[in-house]
């Protein structure tokens, strides 16, 4: 999944604090033969975690599980303990926000968003996967790579194509210099071993797991490898395990093109607010016309066609944020004010040392989980074929992944995901999720015969559970409280159908934020998940 570029500034302090939340506790004693250590818990520095009396620390794990007595790395971990009596305790709940490359340390707060207090029976465990965020070492290669002054995404000339191939190769080489031997140990299967090390360090026989987006693939692979160590799982926005990762990105291109047309239609319905066109087709023509103009003259000197696409990409993922993107585009089209677009781009694209950590890990995982086509001719043919019917995102996505052509680490073999021996789990998806298309949830449901799938019918939001949809969120609460799932039907379809998260109604009133420095609102949670 492409990393989103819309991270709210209002959450920056929360995420920034989380990155340093664990401090530097003393390294615990290590059983190197088994590869297990304890977690040295200490007070968290992050205000949201500290307010909740969370504990933070590091877990030492082998860089290479085939050599547990060799080099070790540290995972940053947080914990918010259960608040119910011990006789109602339901175990540890590991959480992953997706990416790959998303920081999950602050996501130990997720339990408080489960309705009816159903999250209170668990110890919620946030963690930064290996190479991510506060985990040590953290991979970063070139903090300016996703910034300004990039060639246009669509390679309408040989010069553009050559420039992008050179850039992609250069980024892979920068990661080789920066990552060293870490690059050979960043596959999903390595993070799954880390999850099991966290389980062991916590003294738990089994884990519960809540995964968003790529986190659903972590859950699938963990369940495949350790079915007897799974208690409950909630997987929201399900990766199709048969499509990782080259084919999955081509699938996304078509789905995002559909979703952006839906967004153009919403803009047209609110022409009286944004003045961008009275039909979806008119807005679409305006978007591509403005994008073409930006090739010759970037807005504010820096927002070119690539940056405009990156800003609009948010609208293909989620319905929240639609108003912000619309207002920014309207300000440019109607007033020639580039600042709102620039602000949106900059919020999601900090250009400084270490800012590409999420992107570097995204590549390190996806490029090595499975082998990608080695022939650029195949990439070119496939992406032009898809671009002809889905021009919005295809080439941007292709160049985002292009460092995989020369990635300096050996790729592994595809995991044969199976849930035959896994306890009942809960799957969630909206019908028109573009990042993880609904067909992926149906595939996971097929492979996990005791799973139940909840569908947000007709919705375009990606991995949006616990965002206030009572039909979905109450189902999660019931499952976490009692194990109850919707009754599984016999057809290849969802088992429970809910209305999707609603499209917004434009309003001049911004969502009111909680003023307490340590407090997270539901809007904050949305933005935290969107940052994965």
- Choose one word for the global shape: globular
The helix tally amounts to: 17
Question: Which fold does the CATH topology of the largest domain refer to?
Answer: Rossmann fold
How much of the sequence lies in strands comes to 5-15%
CATH H-level superfamily title of the largest domain: Alpha/Beta hydrolase fold, catalytic domain
Number of strands: 12
| Gyration radius over CA | 22 Å
Report on the biggest sheet.
10 strands, mixed
Distance between the termini: 9 Å
Question: Strand-and-helix sequence, N→C?
Answer: HEEEHEEEEHHEHEHHHHHHHHHEHEHEH
User: Architecture of the largest domain, CATH level 2?
Assistant: 3-Layer(aba) Sandwich
Set out the fold topology.
Elements: H1 12-19, E1 30-31, E2 36-37, E3 42-43, H2 47-51, E4 55-62, E5 72-80, E6 92-96, E7 123-128, H3 158-179, H4 188-201, E8 207-212, H5 214-225, E9 230-236, H6 246-269, H7 271-274, H8 280-296, H9 305-317, H10 322-335, H11 339-348, H12 357-369, H13 376-389, H14 394-401, E10 426-430, H15 438-447, E11 452-456, H16 470-482, E12 496-498, H17 522-530
Parallel strand pairs: 6-7, 6-8, 8-9, 9-10, 10-11, 11-12
Antiparallel strand pairs: 1-2, 3-4, 4-5, 5-7
Q: What would your notes on this structure say?
A:
With 532 residues, this protein is α/β, with parallel strands linked by helices. It folds into 3 domains: 78-139 and 186-240 and 416-530, Alpha/Beta hydrolase fold, catalytic domain (Rossmann fold, 3-Layer(aba) Sandwich), CATH 3.40.50; 158-182 and 352-406, no CATH class; 246-348, no CATH class. The protein is built from 17 helices and 12 strands. It has helices at residues 12-19, 47-51, 158-179, 188-201, 214-225, 246-269, 271-274, 280-296, 305-317, 322-335, 339-348, 357-369, 376-389, 394-401, 438-447, 470-482, 522-530; strands at 30-31, 36-37, 42-43, 55-62, 72-80, 92-96, 123-128, 207-212, 230-236, 426-430, 452-456, 496-498. The strands form 2 sheets. A 10-stranded mixed sheet has the order 3-4-5-7-6-8-9-10-11-12, sandwiched between helices. The protein has a two-stranded antiparallel sheet with strand order 1-2. Helix 6 crosses helix 9 (305-317), helix 9 packs across helix 11 (339-348) and helix 10 runs antiparallel to helix 11 (339-348). It is globular, with a radius of gyration of 22 Å.
């Amino acid at each position: 999944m492409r990393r989103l570029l819309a991270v709210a500034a209002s959450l920056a302090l929360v995420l920034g604090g989380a990155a340093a939340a664990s401090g530097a506790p003393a390294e615990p004693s290590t059983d190197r033969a088994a590869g297990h250590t304890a977690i040295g818990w200490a007070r968290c520095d992050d205000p949201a975690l500290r307010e909740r009396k969370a504990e933070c620390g590091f877990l030492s794990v082998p860089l290479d599980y085939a050599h547990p007595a060799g080099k070790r790395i540290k995972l940053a971990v947080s914990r918010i303990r259960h608040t119910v009596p011990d006789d109602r305790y339901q175990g540890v709940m590991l959480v992953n926000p997706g990416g790959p490359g998303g920081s999950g340390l602050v996501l130990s707060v997720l339990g408080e968003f489960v309705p009816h207090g159903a999250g209170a029976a668990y110890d919620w465990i946030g963690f930064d996967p290996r190479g991510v965020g506060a985990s040590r070492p953290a991979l970063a290669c070139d903090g300016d790579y996703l910034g300004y002054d990039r060639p246009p995404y669509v390679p309408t000339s040989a010069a553009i194509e050559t420039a992008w191939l050179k850039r992609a190769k250069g980024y892979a080489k920068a990661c080789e210099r920066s990552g060293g031997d870490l690059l050979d140990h960043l596959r999903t299967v390595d993070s799954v071993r880390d999850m099991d090390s966290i389980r062991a360090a916590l003294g738990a026989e089994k884990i519960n797991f809540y995964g968003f987006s790529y986190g659903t693939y972590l859950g699938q692979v963990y369940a495949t490898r350790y079915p007897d160590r799974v208690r409950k799982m909630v997987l929201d926005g399900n990766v199709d395990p048969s499509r990782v990762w080259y084919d999955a990105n081509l699938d996304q291109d078509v789905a995002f093109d559909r979703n952006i047309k839906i967004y153009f239609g919403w803009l047209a319905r609110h022409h009286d607010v944004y003045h961008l066109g009275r039909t979806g087709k008119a807005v679409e023509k305006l978007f591509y016309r403005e994008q073409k103009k930006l090739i010759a003259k970037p807005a504010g000197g820096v927002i070119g066609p690539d940056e405009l696409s990156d800003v609009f990409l948010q609208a293909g993922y989620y319905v929240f944020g639609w108003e912000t993107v619309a207002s920014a585009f309207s300000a440019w089209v109607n007033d020639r004010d580039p600042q709102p677009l620039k602000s949106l781009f900059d919020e999601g694209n900090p250009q400084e040392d270490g800012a590409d950590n999420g992107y570097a890990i995204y590549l390190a995982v996806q490029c090595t989980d499975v082998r990608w086509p080695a022939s650029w001719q195949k990439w070119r043919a496939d992406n032009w074929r898809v671009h002809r019917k889905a021009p919005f995102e295809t080439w941007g996505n292709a160049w985002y992944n292009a460092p995989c052509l020369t990635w300096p680490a050996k790729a592994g073999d595809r995991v044969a995901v199976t849930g035959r021996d896994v306890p009942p789990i809960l799957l969630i998806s909206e019908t028109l999720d573009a990042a993880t298309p609904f067909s992926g949830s149906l595939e996971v449901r097929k492979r996990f015969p005791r799973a139940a799938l909840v569908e947000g019918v007709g919705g375009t939001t990606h991995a949006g559970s616990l965002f206030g949809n009572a039909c979905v969120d109450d189902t999660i609460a019931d499952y976490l409280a009692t194990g109850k799932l919707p009754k599984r039907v016999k057809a290849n379809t969802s088992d429970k159908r809910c209305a999707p998260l609603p499209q917004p109604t434009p309003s001049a009133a911004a969502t009111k934020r909680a003023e307490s420095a340590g407090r997270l609102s539901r809007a904050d949670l949305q933005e935290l998940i969107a940052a994965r």
